[in-house]
Amino acid sequence: KKARRKEEAKKEQEAMWKRWQEPPVECCKLLLDANIIYDLFMASGDAGSRINNYLDKKPSWGDDILYLTLDRVITEFKNMMKYKFAEEFNYPQVCGQLYSLGRFQDVKLDTNAEYAHRAEKLCKSEKYIGSNGVPLSEVDCYLLEYAIEHSCKLVTRDNALIDATKKEISLRFDEGELTGATSPGVFNPNRT
Question: For 52-67, how does the pLDDT look when each residue is reduced to its tens digit (9 = 90+)?
Answer without folding.
Answer: 777 777 666 667 789 9
